[in-house]
């Protein structure tokens, strides 16, 4: 079994009486492309915020790349890249200035920053807009810049919260190829996404969360085999998170 890049025990996050994350135990192998799935409100974004230091867990322990983030958060931040749900970019900097600033924070040599930034901007098709303020970027451009920011320091692990939301098909293909290349080179990715087609295409491991609880986890092939081997990821996912719902109204009035 591959060593774990991420391991949690009893990870819990509450907001008053609301239990958003309910004692989950994640196991993400090093070098894996791990998809973290769940319906809206299941606790995906809260989990990733706890893991990346944007929130403090209410209870539980976890280690990322062999280090306890609660004990040594700076050491962990040097090893990981994050694309948060809200992107967290500086609107009054240009694309080039944003990457230059990130390089300085990480202590990367200026020549290396220029080289890496140039390659990333080219890959993300942001070269022509590199001198424009981030405030003027479209949502898709901001998403691509945020991914460039996460990749610039050459992290050993990436946390990506809905990275394909609002991205056009051409850019999505480029990003998929980049992420697969990153994993092939030994990196680990922890991805949340609502787009099951992308998860099925990219991820070799998944975890499924429902109402704050982890209901399934493991290699995609093993989970599908356990379900008979013939189900798509969508069918497997819907089976795992299916809950009682109100009967669908006929809405005959829509047909005129």
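Sequence proposed for the structure above (256 residues):
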């Amino acid at each position: 079994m591959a060593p774990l890049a991420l391991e949690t025990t009893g990870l819990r996050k509450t907001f008053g009486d609301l239990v958003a994350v309910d004692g989950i135990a994640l196991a993400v192998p090093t070098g894996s492309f791990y998809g973290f799935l769940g319906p809206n409100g299941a606790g995906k974004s809260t989990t990733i915020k706890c893991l990346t230091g944007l929130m403090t867990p209410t209870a539980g322990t976890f280690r990322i790349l062999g280090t306890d983030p609660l004990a040594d958060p700076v050491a962990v931040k040097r090893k990981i890249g994050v694309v948060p749900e809200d992107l967290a970019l500086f609107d009054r900097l240009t694309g080039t200035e944003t990457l230059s600033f990130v390089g300085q924070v990480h202590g990367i040599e200026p020549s290396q920053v220029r080289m890496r930034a140039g390659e990333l901007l080219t890959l993300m098709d942001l070269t022509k807009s590199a001198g424009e303020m981030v405030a003027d970027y479209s949502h898709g451009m901001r998403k691509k810049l945020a991914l460039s920011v996460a990749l610039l320091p050459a992290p050993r692990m990436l946390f990506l919260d809905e990275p394909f939301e609002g991205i056009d098909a051409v850019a999505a293909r480029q990003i998929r190829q980049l992420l697969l290349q990153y994993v092939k080179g030994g990196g680990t990715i922890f991805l949340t996404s609502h787009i099951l087609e992308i998860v099925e295409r990219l991820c070799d491991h998944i975890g499924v969360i429902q109402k704050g609880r982890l209901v399934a986890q493991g290699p995609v092939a093993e989970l599908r085999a356990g379900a008979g081997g013939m189900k798509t990821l969508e069918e497997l996912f819907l089976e795992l998170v299916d809950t009682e719902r109100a009967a669908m109204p006929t809405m005959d009035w829509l047909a005129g």
